[in-house]
Amino acid sequence: MQERHHFLIADDHPLVRQALSQAIVSELPGARFSEASTLDETLEILDTVDDIDLLLLDLNMPGMQGFSGLFYIRSAYPKVAIVMISASETATVMRQAIDYGAAGFIPKSASLKTIRHAIRALLRGEQWVPDPDVLDSPGGDPGLAAQLNSLTRQQLRVLMLLTEGKLNKQIAFDLDITEATVKAHVSAILQKLDVSSRTQAVILAQRLKPSDPAEISPGKGGSA
After folding, report:
1. Residues β-bridged to residue 10
2. Which terminal CB of the chain, N or C, has fewer other CB atoms within 10 Å?
3. What whole-number distance in Å separates Cα of residue 155 and Cα of residue 116?
4. Tens digits of residue pLDDT in 123-140
5. Which residues contact 91 (CB under 8 A, 6 or more apart)?
6. Do the beta carbons of residue 48 and residue 138 sit within 8 Å?
7. What is the pTM of this model?
């Protein structure tokens, strides 16, 4: 019986999405695909589709704010397996992705053969990175990860919006909640992160930016 895995490819470059889907379908002819070009579009699909087998997530897609987007998706949709895709090939960034909850990491320069091998391993529930030695390299911040994992889904979203410089009124509008609820979330965030101000919370969250400067782009945070 032909396998009918469902993949969500989230990347703001149409050619990247096309290349990934072609690589996958050559290995799994029955594969189905959903596509997104921003974090918000990704979340909309995850909210409405409940049979995603693997999310291929661009590290520097609009809305991601580095690894903050990964943290949010892991919190909101813990059953969805995630593999980060990125132009970066540094061991540190790959290790960060794994430490922050990704099941694997596929560089965008990977060959079709490598991508197919990675997808098969990930569908089997295995962890996959191009080089196993990456897992022994310096990477994420376990202390920060533990603090962020203590935040609820909504608190993580509020923190991401704080990092964008938005005021309580703007956050309330974006999340369709009251300003009083935003203030309550901010207070809980400060307590859980053990900081005393919004600024300190934002500085802490900014530590989730990739360690590779090439992954940090100005403006909207264009694709890696």
Report:
1. 36, 57
2. N
3. 36
4. 999 999 998 887 776 666
5. 131, 133, 134, 137, 139
6. no
7. 0.84
